[in-house]
Amino acid sequence: MNPTDPTEPAPEPMHRLRFEAPGPPCRTELPGGTPAWLVSRYADVRQVLSDPRFGRARLYAPDAPALSDVPDLVNDPDLMFNQDGPDHLRLRRTLRRAFTPRAVARWRPWIAAIVEELLNRLEERPQPADAVAEFALPLPVAVISRLMGLDEPVWGRLRHWSEHAFSDGTHESEQVASALKEFSAFGADLLAQRRRAPGDDLVSGIVAAADEEGGVPEAQLVSLVCGLVVGGHDSTMTMLGNALLCLLGERRETWPRLGADEQAAERVADRLVHLVPLGDDRGSTRHAAADVEVGGVTIPAGAIVLADCGMANRDPEVFPPATLHDLLAPLEAPTLSFGAGPHYCLGAWLARTELQLALHRLAARFPDLRLADPTDTVVWRTGTTSRSPRSLRVRW
Protein backbone atom coordinates (compact mmCIF):
# COMPACT_ATOMS: atom_id res chain seq x y z
CA MET A 1 0.00 0.00 0.00
CA ASN A 2 1.29 3.44 -0.91
CA PRO A 3 0.23 5.94 1.79
CA THR A 4 0.68 8.86 -0.64
CA ASP A 5 -1.54 7.38 -3.36
CA PRO A 6 -4.90 9.23 -3.22
CA THR A 7 -6.58 6.47 -5.27
CA GLU A 8 -6.08 3.92 -2.52
CA PRO A 9 -8.54 3.91 0.39
CA ALA A 10 -7.10 4.96 3.73
CA PRO A 11 -6.65 1.96 6.04
CA GLU A 12 -9.06 1.62 8.93
CA PRO A 13 -7.73 2.55 12.38
CA MET A 14 -6.58 -0.56 14.17
CA HIS A 15 -9.25 -0.28 16.86
CA ARG A 16 -11.97 -0.38 14.18
CA LEU A 17 -10.86 -3.62 12.51
CA ARG A 18 -13.67 -6.14 12.14
CA PHE A 19 -13.34 -9.79 13.14
CA GLU A 20 -15.57 -12.66 12.14
CA ALA A 21 -17.20 -14.67 14.90
CA PRO A 22 -14.97 -17.55 16.08
CA GLY A 23 -16.01 -21.10 15.25
CA PRO A 24 -14.74 -24.67 15.02
CA PRO A 25 -11.39 -25.32 13.28
CA CYS A 26 -11.79 -25.07 9.52
CA ARG A 27 -9.68 -25.13 6.38
CA THR A 28 -8.25 -21.85 5.09
CA GLU A 29 -5.25 -20.49 3.16
CA LEU A 30 -2.27 -18.39 4.17
CA PRO A 31 -1.82 -15.10 2.26
CA GLY A 32 0.48 -16.85 -0.24
CA GLY A 33 -2.07 -19.58 -0.96
CA THR A 34 -0.61 -22.31 1.25
CA PRO A 35 -3.37 -24.55 2.70
CA ALA A 36 -3.82 -24.24 6.45
CA TRP A 37 -6.27 -24.79 9.29
CA LEU A 38 -7.85 -21.77 10.99
CA VAL A 39 -8.34 -22.05 14.76
CA SER A 40 -10.32 -19.16 16.25
CA ARG A 41 -12.14 -20.00 19.50
CA TYR A 42 -10.43 -18.97 22.74
CA ALA A 43 -10.02 -22.46 24.19
CA ASP A 44 -8.87 -23.87 20.85
CA VAL A 45 -6.29 -21.13 20.29
CA ARG A 46 -4.93 -21.58 23.82
CA GLN A 47 -4.64 -25.31 23.14
CA VAL A 48 -2.72 -24.81 19.89
CA LEU A 49 -0.36 -22.27 21.45
CA SER A 50 0.26 -24.44 24.52
CA ASP A 51 0.40 -27.98 23.06
CA PRO A 52 4.03 -28.97 22.21
CA ARG A 53 2.72 -30.96 19.24
CA PHE A 54 2.08 -27.61 17.54
CA GLY A 55 5.55 -26.16 16.99
CA ARG A 56 7.34 -23.44 15.06
CA ALA A 57 10.63 -25.03 14.01
CA ARG A 58 9.13 -27.34 11.35
CA LEU A 59 7.74 -24.29 9.54
CA TYR A 60 11.32 -23.62 8.44
CA ALA A 61 12.29 -27.12 7.34
CA PRO A 62 13.94 -27.31 3.88
CA ASP A 63 10.80 -28.83 2.37
CA ALA A 64 8.36 -26.41 4.03
CA PRO A 65 6.57 -23.73 1.95
CA ALA A 66 8.02 -20.24 2.37
CA LEU A 67 6.06 -18.07 4.78
CA SER A 68 7.42 -14.83 3.30
CA ASP A 69 8.66 -13.70 -0.09
CA VAL A 70 11.41 -11.54 1.40
CA PRO A 71 13.85 -12.20 4.25
CA ASP A 72 12.85 -10.83 7.65
CA LEU A 73 13.75 -11.30 11.29
CA VAL A 74 10.37 -12.81 12.19
CA ASN A 75 11.02 -15.79 9.88
CA ASP A 76 14.65 -16.28 10.86
CA PRO A 77 14.97 -19.96 11.92
CA ASP A 78 17.55 -18.89 14.55
CA LEU A 79 15.06 -16.60 16.31
CA MET A 80 14.05 -17.90 19.74
CA PHE A 81 10.36 -17.69 18.79
CA ASN A 82 11.03 -20.17 15.97
CA GLN A 83 12.70 -22.77 18.20
CA ASP A 84 10.92 -25.65 19.93
CA GLY A 85 11.61 -28.06 22.77
CA PRO A 86 15.12 -28.14 24.27
CA ASP A 87 16.51 -25.58 21.79
CA HIS A 88 13.81 -23.10 22.74
CA LEU A 89 14.18 -23.75 26.47
CA ARG A 90 17.95 -23.33 26.30
CA LEU A 91 17.57 -19.89 24.75
CA ARG A 92 14.73 -18.88 27.03
CA ARG A 93 16.78 -19.80 30.09
CA THR A 94 19.34 -17.17 29.09
CA LEU A 95 16.61 -14.65 29.96
CA ARG A 96 15.18 -16.47 32.99
CA ARG A 97 15.91 -13.60 35.38
CA ALA A 98 14.87 -10.83 33.00
CA PHE A 99 11.35 -9.59 32.24
CA THR A 100 9.75 -11.32 35.23
CA PRO A 101 7.04 -9.33 37.04
CA ARG A 102 9.46 -8.84 39.96
CA ALA A 103 12.22 -7.55 37.67
CA VAL A 104 9.87 -5.17 35.85
CA ALA A 105 8.58 -3.89 39.22
CA ARG A 106 12.18 -2.94 40.11
CA TRP A 107 12.48 -1.07 36.80
CA ARG A 108 9.22 0.82 37.26
CA PRO A 109 10.73 3.90 39.02
CA TRP A 110 13.27 4.65 36.29
CA ILE A 111 10.72 3.94 33.56
CA ALA A 112 8.45 6.46 35.28
CA ALA A 113 11.35 8.94 35.34
CA ILE A 114 11.80 8.56 31.57
CA VAL A 115 8.06 9.16 31.09
CA GLU A 116 8.23 12.37 33.17
CA GLU A 117 11.28 13.63 31.28
CA LEU A 118 9.50 13.14 27.96
CA LEU A 119 6.38 14.87 29.28
CA ASN A 120 8.51 17.84 30.36
CA ARG A 121 9.92 18.08 26.85
CA LEU A 122 6.47 17.73 25.29
CA GLU A 123 5.13 20.57 27.43
CA GLU A 124 7.82 22.86 26.03
CA ARG A 125 7.00 22.09 22.40
CA PRO A 126 4.93 24.49 20.31
CA GLN A 127 1.39 23.31 19.65
CA PRO A 128 0.31 21.22 17.90
CA ALA A 129 3.02 18.74 18.83
CA ASP A 130 3.56 15.25 17.43
CA ALA A 131 2.71 12.73 20.17
CA VAL A 132 4.43 9.94 18.21
CA ALA A 133 7.75 11.70 17.63
CA GLU A 134 7.80 13.27 21.09
CA PHE A 135 6.41 10.46 23.21
CA ALA A 136 5.19 7.17 21.71
CA LEU A 137 8.49 6.42 19.94
CA PRO A 138 11.19 7.83 22.25
CA LEU A 139 9.72 6.20 25.38
CA PRO A 140 10.18 2.54 24.40
CA VAL A 141 13.44 3.34 22.58
CA ALA A 142 14.86 4.91 25.75
CA VAL A 143 13.63 2.00 27.90
CA ILE A 144 15.05 -0.80 25.75
CA SER A 145 18.27 1.15 25.23
CA ARG A 146 18.80 1.49 28.97
CA LEU A 147 18.05 -2.21 29.52
CA MET A 148 20.48 -3.30 26.81
CA GLY A 149 23.11 -0.64 27.37
CA LEU A 150 22.76 0.98 23.94
CA ASP A 151 24.33 4.36 23.33
CA GLU A 152 22.12 7.18 22.07
CA PRO A 153 23.91 7.51 18.68
CA VAL A 154 22.50 4.12 17.62
CA TRP A 155 18.89 5.11 18.39
CA GLY A 156 18.37 6.54 14.93
CA ARG A 157 19.21 3.19 13.34
CA LEU A 158 16.65 1.28 15.41
CA ARG A 159 13.70 2.40 13.30
CA HIS A 160 15.54 1.55 10.07
CA TRP A 161 16.30 -1.94 11.34
CA SER A 162 12.77 -2.42 12.66
CA GLU A 163 11.17 -1.43 9.36
CA HIS A 164 13.18 -4.09 7.57
CA ALA A 165 13.21 -6.74 10.31
CA PHE A 166 9.40 -6.66 10.36
CA SER A 167 8.88 -6.02 6.65
CA ASP A 168 5.48 -7.01 5.30
CA GLY A 169 6.96 -7.93 1.93
CA THR A 170 6.70 -4.51 0.28
CA HIS A 171 10.43 -3.81 0.61
CA GLU A 172 12.86 -5.05 -2.03
CA SER A 173 14.51 -8.33 -1.01
CA GLU A 174 18.00 -6.93 -1.55
CA GLN A 175 17.19 -3.91 0.60
CA VAL A 176 15.89 -6.07 3.45
CA ALA A 177 18.82 -8.47 3.20
CA SER A 178 21.29 -5.57 3.37
CA ALA A 179 19.60 -4.03 6.41
CA LEU A 180 19.43 -7.37 8.22
CA LYS A 181 23.09 -8.08 7.47
CA GLU A 182 24.02 -4.73 8.99
CA PHE A 183 21.72 -5.38 11.97
CA SER A 184 23.19 -8.85 12.58
CA ALA A 185 26.69 -7.39 12.49
CA PHE A 186 25.58 -4.87 15.11
CA GLY A 187 24.18 -7.66 17.30
CA ALA A 188 27.32 -9.77 16.96
CA ASP A 189 29.51 -6.78 17.81
CA LEU A 190 27.36 -5.96 20.83
CA LEU A 191 27.76 -9.51 22.16
CA ALA A 192 31.52 -9.36 21.59
CA GLN A 193 31.74 -6.04 23.45
CA ARG A 194 29.91 -7.46 26.46
CA ARG A 195 32.14 -10.52 26.54
CA ARG A 196 35.20 -8.25 26.68
CA ALA A 197 33.71 -5.80 29.18
CA PRO A 198 30.56 -7.07 30.94
CA GLY A 199 28.24 -4.49 32.45
CA ASP A 200 24.99 -4.33 34.38
CA ASP A 201 22.80 -4.65 31.31
CA LEU A 202 20.61 -7.26 29.66
CA VAL A 203 23.12 -8.21 26.94
CA SER A 204 25.82 -8.89 29.53
CA GLY A 205 23.32 -11.05 31.41
CA ILE A 206 22.53 -12.99 28.23
CA VAL A 207 26.24 -13.60 27.59
CA ALA A 208 26.84 -14.84 31.15
CA ALA A 209 23.74 -17.06 31.12
CA ALA A 210 24.61 -18.51 27.69
CA ASP A 211 28.13 -19.36 28.86
CA GLU A 212 26.68 -21.03 31.96
CA GLU A 213 24.08 -22.88 29.87
CA GLY A 214 26.57 -24.01 27.23
CA GLY A 215 25.82 -25.18 23.72
CA VAL A 216 23.92 -22.09 22.56
CA PRO A 217 24.85 -21.36 18.91
CA GLU A 218 26.18 -17.85 18.34
CA ALA A 219 23.70 -17.27 15.49
CA GLN A 220 20.83 -17.87 17.90
CA LEU A 221 22.29 -15.42 20.43
CA VAL A 222 22.66 -12.79 17.71
CA SER A 223 19.04 -13.28 16.65
CA LEU A 224 17.96 -13.12 20.29
CA VAL A 225 19.70 -9.80 20.86
CA CYS A 226 18.43 -8.32 17.60
CA GLY A 227 14.90 -9.51 18.35
CA LEU A 228 15.01 -7.86 21.77
CA VAL A 229 16.35 -4.59 20.35
CA VAL A 230 13.65 -4.10 17.71
CA GLY A 231 10.81 -6.04 19.34
CA GLY A 232 11.43 -4.26 22.63
CA HIS A 233 10.47 -0.90 21.22
CA ASP A 234 8.39 -1.49 18.08
CA SER A 235 5.49 -3.26 19.78
CA THR A 236 5.19 -0.72 22.60
CA MET A 237 5.40 2.21 20.19
CA THR A 238 2.68 0.61 18.07
CA MET A 239 0.43 -0.09 21.06
CA LEU A 240 0.83 3.42 22.46
CA GLY A 241 0.23 5.20 19.15
CA ASN A 242 -2.90 3.15 18.42
CA ALA A 243 -4.15 3.58 21.99
CA LEU A 244 -3.84 7.36 21.80
CA LEU A 245 -5.70 7.48 18.49
CA CYS A 246 -8.51 5.37 19.92
CA LEU A 247 -8.78 7.25 23.22
CA LEU A 248 -8.44 10.81 21.90
CA GLY A 249 -10.33 10.19 18.69
CA GLU A 250 -13.32 8.15 19.85
CA ARG A 251 -13.16 7.38 23.59
CA ARG A 252 -12.33 10.82 24.95
CA GLU A 253 -14.80 10.31 27.85
CA THR A 254 -12.31 7.85 29.35
CA TRP A 255 -9.38 10.30 29.37
CA PRO A 256 -10.12 12.02 32.75
CA ARG A 257 -10.28 8.65 34.54
CA LEU A 258 -6.89 7.68 33.15
CA GLY A 259 -5.19 10.65 34.77
CA ALA A 260 -7.08 10.53 38.06
CA ASP A 261 -6.93 6.79 38.76
CA GLU A 262 -3.82 4.69 38.08
CA GLN A 263 -5.73 1.43 38.51
CA ALA A 264 -8.25 2.60 35.93
CA ALA A 265 -5.35 3.34 33.58
CA GLU A 266 -4.10 -0.21 34.08
CA ARG A 267 -7.50 -1.66 33.19
CA VAL A 268 -7.80 0.57 30.10
CA ALA A 269 -4.29 -0.36 28.95
CA ASP A 270 -5.02 -4.06 29.36
CA ARG A 271 -8.33 -3.80 27.51
CA LEU A 272 -6.72 -1.88 24.63
CA VAL A 273 -3.94 -4.45 24.33
CA HIS A 274 -6.66 -7.08 24.22
CA LEU A 275 -8.79 -5.35 21.57
CA VAL A 276 -6.32 -3.52 19.32
CA PRO A 277 -3.97 -5.77 17.31
CA LEU A 278 -0.46 -4.69 16.42
CA GLY A 279 -0.96 -5.24 12.70
CA ASP A 280 -3.28 -6.31 9.93
CA ASP A 281 -1.84 -9.83 9.71
CA ARG A 282 -3.82 -12.12 11.95
CA GLY A 283 -2.85 -15.25 13.72
CA SER A 284 0.21 -17.09 14.91
CA THR A 285 1.32 -19.95 12.68
CA ARG A 286 2.19 -23.44 13.93
CA HIS A 287 3.01 -26.87 12.43
CA ALA A 288 1.20 -29.99 13.63
CA ALA A 289 3.67 -32.78 14.42
CA ALA A 290 0.89 -35.36 14.89
CA ASP A 291 -2.84 -35.80 14.47
CA VAL A 292 -4.40 -33.64 17.19
CA GLU A 293 -8.04 -33.13 18.09
CA VAL A 294 -8.88 -29.47 18.59
CA GLY A 295 -12.40 -28.36 19.38
CA GLY A 296 -13.86 -31.65 18.19
CA VAL A 297 -11.97 -31.56 14.87
CA THR A 298 -8.91 -33.66 14.04
CA ILE A 299 -6.10 -31.57 12.58
CA PRO A 300 -3.82 -33.92 10.64
CA ALA A 301 -0.09 -34.32 11.14
CA GLY A 302 1.91 -32.03 8.87
CA ALA A 303 -0.80 -29.37 8.67
CA ILE A 304 -0.06 -25.67 9.08
CA VAL A 305 -2.31 -24.11 11.70
CA LEU A 306 -3.22 -20.43 11.94
CA ALA A 307 -4.21 -19.56 15.50
CA ASP A 308 -6.19 -16.30 15.25
CA CYS A 309 -5.71 -14.52 18.57
CA GLY A 310 -7.81 -11.53 17.48
CA MET A 311 -10.88 -13.68 16.89
CA ALA A 312 -10.23 -15.64 20.08
CA ASN A 313 -10.01 -12.40 22.09
CA ARG A 314 -13.59 -11.71 21.00
CA ASP A 315 -14.98 -15.16 21.78
CA PRO A 316 -18.41 -14.40 23.31
CA GLU A 317 -18.18 -17.57 25.40
CA VAL A 318 -15.27 -15.98 27.29
CA PHE A 319 -15.55 -12.23 26.76
CA PRO A 320 -19.23 -11.17 26.98
CA PRO A 321 -20.27 -8.72 24.25
CA ALA A 322 -21.81 -6.47 26.91
CA THR A 323 -18.39 -5.67 28.41
CA LEU A 324 -16.07 -6.37 25.48
CA HIS A 325 -15.67 -2.69 24.58
CA ASP A 326 -15.97 -1.35 28.14
CA LEU A 327 -12.43 -0.02 28.53
CA LEU A 328 -12.71 0.20 32.30
CA ALA A 329 -13.91 -3.39 32.78
CA PRO A 330 -11.30 -5.92 33.98
CA LEU A 331 -10.58 -8.67 31.49
CA GLU A 332 -12.61 -11.81 32.12
CA ALA A 333 -9.70 -14.08 31.11
CA PRO A 334 -6.03 -13.64 30.16
CA THR A 335 -5.64 -11.95 26.81
CA LEU A 336 -4.06 -13.88 23.95
CA SER A 337 -2.47 -10.73 22.52
CA PHE A 338 0.84 -11.80 24.07
CA GLY A 339 0.36 -15.41 23.03
CA ALA A 340 0.22 -18.37 25.41
CA GLY A 341 2.22 -21.45 26.28
CA PRO A 342 5.98 -21.84 25.90
CA HIS A 343 6.24 -19.00 23.37
CA TYR A 344 4.37 -16.49 25.55
CA CYS A 345 5.86 -13.03 24.96
CA LEU A 346 8.77 -12.47 27.33
CA GLY A 347 8.28 -8.71 27.22
CA ALA A 348 4.59 -8.75 28.16
CA TRP A 349 5.07 -7.34 31.67
CA LEU A 350 7.44 -4.66 30.42
CA ALA A 351 5.10 -3.62 27.59
CA ARG A 352 2.11 -3.46 29.96
CA THR A 353 4.06 -1.38 32.48
CA GLU A 354 5.22 1.11 29.85
CA LEU A 355 1.73 1.47 28.37
CA GLN A 356 0.05 1.85 31.76
CA LEU A 357 2.53 4.45 33.02
CA ALA A 358 2.50 6.33 29.72
CA LEU A 359 -1.30 6.65 29.53
CA HIS A 360 -1.73 7.48 33.21
CA ARG A 361 0.94 10.16 33.40
CA LEU A 362 0.10 11.67 29.99
CA ALA A 363 -3.56 12.04 31.01
CA ALA A 364 -2.60 13.43 34.42
CA ARG A 365 -0.25 16.04 32.99
CA PHE A 366 -2.43 16.93 29.99
CA PRO A 367 -6.09 16.50 31.03
CA ASP A 368 -7.20 18.61 28.04
CA LEU A 369 -5.13 16.69 25.49
CA ARG A 370 -6.95 16.38 22.17
CA LEU A 371 -6.23 15.57 18.55
CA ALA A 372 -5.39 18.51 16.33
CA ASP A 373 -6.61 16.75 13.17
CA PRO A 374 -9.56 14.52 12.24
CA THR A 375 -8.90 10.81 12.69
CA ASP A 376 -9.57 10.12 9.00
CA THR A 377 -6.54 12.26 8.02
CA VAL A 378 -4.04 10.12 9.93
CA VAL A 379 -1.08 8.97 7.84
CA TRP A 380 -0.23 5.40 8.70
CA ARG A 381 3.16 3.80 9.17
CA THR A 382 3.02 0.99 6.64
CA GLY A 383 5.43 -1.51 5.11
CA THR A 384 5.86 -3.54 8.30
CA THR A 385 3.83 -6.24 10.01
CA SER A 386 2.78 -3.71 12.67
CA ARG A 387 0.76 -0.56 11.92
CA SER A 388 0.20 2.66 13.85
CA PRO A 389 -0.01 6.41 13.14
CA ARG A 390 3.15 7.81 11.57
CA SER A 391 2.40 11.02 13.44
CA LEU A 392 -0.34 12.21 15.76
CA ARG A 393 -0.63 15.96 16.24
CA VAL A 394 -2.11 17.00 19.58
CA ARG A 395 -3.03 20.15 21.50
CA TRP A 396 -3.59 20.72 25.20
Mean pLDDT: 91
How far is the N terminus from the C terminus?
A: 33 Å
- What's the total number of strands? 12
Strand share of the residues?
Answer: 5-15%
Q: How is the biggest beta sheet arranged?
A: 5 strands, mixed
Question: Would you mind describing this structure in some detail?
Answer:
- A five-stranded mixed β-sheet has the order 1-2-8-5-3, covered by helices on one side. It has a three-stranded antiparallel β-sheet with strand order 4-12-9.
- The chain has helices spanning 42-50, 85-93, 101-124, 131-136, 138-148, 155-165, 173-196, 202-213, 218-249, 255-260, 262-275, 309-312, 321-324, 348-365; strands spanning 26-29, 35-39, 54-55, 129-130, 284-288, 292-294, 297-299, 304-307, 370-371, 380-381, 388-389, 393-395.
- The longest helix is centred in the middle third of the chain and has 32 residues, at 218-249.
- With 396 residues, it is α+β, with helices and mostly antiparallel strands.
- The chain is globular.
